[in-house]
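I'd like us to work through together how a protein chain folds, taking it slowly. To get us started, please write out a protein record for me. Label the sequence line and the structure token line clearly, so we can match residues to local backbone shapes. Once you have written the record down, we can walk along the chain together.
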Amino acid sequence: MTASDDSQHLRIVVVQDAARLHYAVPISLQRAGILDRVFTDWYTSKGSIESAVTNALRLVNPARAARMATRFAPELDASKVRSKPILIFSQFFGRRHFKHETEYFSWMSDLVAQWVLDKGLGDCNGLFGFVRNIFPGLCSTAKHMGLKVINDQTIAPFAVEHAEAIKQREKFPGWLPNRPMFNDRLLSDFERGTWESSDLITCASDYVQQGLVSQGVSEKKVVVLPYPVDAGRIDAIDR
């Protein structure tokens, strides 16, 4: 993907958690010349606070430090990345206060959204995020500001996923824990709020697309966009 005269008017801001898809989305947008900025909680670029903390962490917890060090992509222009390391500590200390993981992730998503809006979207005219990660209120606000909102559905809708889990629980008793892991209504509402504020939803398979349509999302709104794989980074076994 390369920049072209037709794409120069596009200015996309990406909001993502961790190193999702190893930053494939912002890198692709950067190659196309339309990436404006990326918001993420932690980014271990050279000379950053995150880099210093990661190096110090190697002395006491090498495994965790190694994971934190992966939150970096050499190809991604670090000047376009906006990070807020304190969010990592908020995650660590905040998790214990929530009964359900869904409530915790919704709270964290809201914190990120407030930070993004405080920093501002500048003169961006497009927002890209990930369903279940980006806060629906941020999508709604961006849409009211005139931005085009695009989100990636990384997994089948919760209703489809949950129905499949119930089916498998009946087939294999004891496979799933009896205690509730999700606040079903909150997660469903979270997804629907994101869908409603999206101009376009991408997904990696026909299965996910069909799941979205089954939940009332317009088929015209959904585009199947399989995740690319850089085969050169994989050590293949010659059999």
Notes: Residues 73 and 224 are 25 Å apart (CA to CA). The chain is about 40% helix and 15% strand. Confidence is low (pLDDT under 50) at residues 1-6.
